[in-house]
Amino acid sequence: MNLLELTPSGLYCPQADIFIDPWRPVEKAIITHAHADHSRYGMKHYLAHHHSAEVMKLRLGQDISLETLDYNEPILINGVKISLHPAGHIPGSSQIRLELKGKTVVVSGDYKVEDDGLSAPFEAVKCQEFVSECTFGLPIYKWQAQKEIFDSLNNWWRSNAEKGLNSVVFAYSLGKAQRIINHLDYSIGEVFAHGAIWNTNQALMASGVKVIDIPKVTQEVPKSRFKGALIIAPPSAMGSPWMKKFSPYRTGICSGWMNIRGARRRRAADAGFVLSDHADWEGLISAIKATDAEKVYLTHGSTAVFGRYLEEVEKIQAVELETLFEGENGSETGD
């Protein structure tokens, strides 16, 4: 990667003197999206898509130095043409396109290829070199259509409500939670948000993202209103004293890891819904082939297996990159 090099602080473009999703404090950083493993505290100057702006300020501080761009709005930094393109991962998620003297490299960040109705849909960007995640880079990962998953979730909620049970769904507070909120059947009952999710909703709406504005769980909300309701909470709330106010309840988890047998039992949930904001095996392959890239750099996930497939079957040169990006690993850092 002449345009990019991997340094102890992360991916770096020497010509533009700028990092992409750096792991350590640097002077200038381009941020692919606002999840905590890609958007970190301590950079002197940030550049991101405008839908990420208010969430980044919520998480990193209102006083950060932040410049924002729209998709397909190129800027020139020391001869390097830089533009942001939709990654389809969460609102504001961007692929970073770098061009210099006829050479084009695209850093995809995290992405998915199915249109979730919330984020700008993934856009394939032609390039010679492509930096791709492969969080779910194994053939066992094949997602159902989104409508089928939400039908299943709504039916589970309806069944609980008919039995006099409340429903608590655990989902990442940025991206996954809003995706769920926008696809619920509100004829079933009321929907409430944990404070962390409610705050994120407000920040996204302030940045122009269309999210249904649901009420926040507070001490003032009488317990009677939770009867038959669905409450959306971050994974960190699981098993916490905060949960007592919803008893009796059933719990569900929305995650790509629910694809693995036994994952729901290990997390002590009553139901698991295979809903991921990352591309599955086929999505990764289709996205990479659509770029026409001659070389692909693979980060976090099943890099060895997926890289071998690209080289042996697709005849695309693949290189593993050791990064600190965590992907959808059960924490609040990547979804």
Automatic annotation (TrEMBL):
Lineage: superkingdom: Bacteria
InterPro entries: MBL, RibonucZ/Hydroxyglut_hydro, Xnuc_lig_assoc
GO molecular function, one term: RNA endonuclease activity
Protein name stated in the entry: Putative mRNA 3-end processing factor
